[in-house]
Each structure stands twice: as structure tokens, then as C-alpha cells.
Amino acid sequence: MTGFEEHEAIGRHYDLLFSAEDVAAGKPQQELNIAAQKGNLDVEGWRVRKDGSRFWANGVLTALYDKGKLTGFVKVTRDLTERRRLEHQLQQAQKMEVIGQLAGGIAHDFNNVLTIILGYAELLFSQVADDDQKKTLVTEISDAAHRAAALTGQLLAFSRKQILEPNSPLF
User: Fold this and answer.
1) Is residue 165 in a domain?
2) Spatial contact of 135 and 83, defined as CB atoms under 8 Å apart
3) How many domains is the chain built from?
4) What dihedral do alpha carbons 45, 18, 32, 42 form, nearest 10°?
5) Phi, psi of 80, rounded to the nearest 5 degrees
């Protein structure tokens, strides 16, 4: 997991697997101090392999005592990089689900408004003479509402909900 052979790690200081920044901040020694006080320490953080690559690890550091005297430490480390990546993917998926729900709610509400606009445009259209210039304006309103309905359909598709279209038999 770390790239170190047994002979390369045994006898070396605990900070071997820590980044230069963590060593400079005193993290390895802090962990040793806590484990010595409490008997053990369960901690997660970035660790460094022999080749310099980093991995997210969980480590359980246990103090070893002989007749009440601290004689050393044992550490069991697990590479949690893949688990952390999967957790991040899950969080992203959950965020997208919330965005989808929001988009769907907005689309449904907007669709209701468009239905009203199209309904009134239909009423106006039926009350204007065929040669009246206002008929062209009402048609423009209706066309714009239909374009907005198409956008609403895209929002609903994004949210994975059923596409609703305003009904307007005259337009």
C-alpha cells in the first residue's frame, strides 16, 4: 500500500508516511502524544507513499507498554482513497438530485403560468378580427409562450419528470 519494503520502514520514524507540510506542522508527534496518553488513536488523513503519491488513510495507532513503561507503537493503516472517492460521487449525485427536484418544481410552476398566458392569448385571438394587426401581436405572445413551454419541457426532462405542455387548440 505504501510502496515501502519492510526493511525500509522498520526502525524509521512514524513521520515517514506524512507529507512535508504535516511533518512541519508537528502532526506525527501530536498523534504519538495522543496515542501515548489515551492508549490509542483512530485518525483519518492524507498519507504519502514512497513514490510521493498521496492516499486517504484511516490509521489506528496503539501505544505499547511494558510494566507501565511506553515501549513503542503499532499502527494499522487502511487505504480509504476509493471509499472517499465513492462518497464524493454520492454527494455529487445527491446534489444533482436536489437540483433536479428544484428544476422540476420551478418548471411545473412556470408551466402553470404559461397555461394561463396561453389561455388568455387564445381568448384574445378569438376576439380579434382576422385582418386586425392585433392578431399578429397575440400570435407573437402565443409563440413566445410556446417557446417558453419548450424550455420548461427541458427543465422537466432534466428533473426526470413527465413533460407537461400547455394546451392551446387555436395556436
Assistant:
1) no
2) no
3) 2
4) 20
5) -110, 15
Query: Which residues have a Cβ under 8 Å from the Cβ of 106 and sit 6 or more positions away?
Result: 155
Calculate ∠ Cα 21-22-28, nearest 5°. Answer: 150
By the 8 A CB rule, do 49 and 3 touch?
A: yes
Answer yes or no: is 150 within a domain: yes
Would you say residue 170 has pLDDT above 70?
no
- This prediction has a pTM of 0.56
Helices and strands: H and E segment counts in the chain: 5, 3
- Cell numbers found for residue 156: 422537466
Asked if residues 64 and 73 have their Cβ atoms less than 8 Å apart, the reply is yes
Phi–psi pair at 68, nearest 5 degrees: 80, 0
- CATH code at position 119: 1.10.287
- For 15-41, b/e burial (b = at least 16 CB within 10 A) is bebbbeebbeeebbeebbeebbeeeeb
> Is 50 exceeded by the pLDDT of residue 92?
yes
DSSP state of 71: E
CA geometry: angle 72, 77, 81, nearest 5 deg: 155
C-beta separation of 14 from 34 below 8 A:
no
42 is in which domain, residue-wise? 6-79
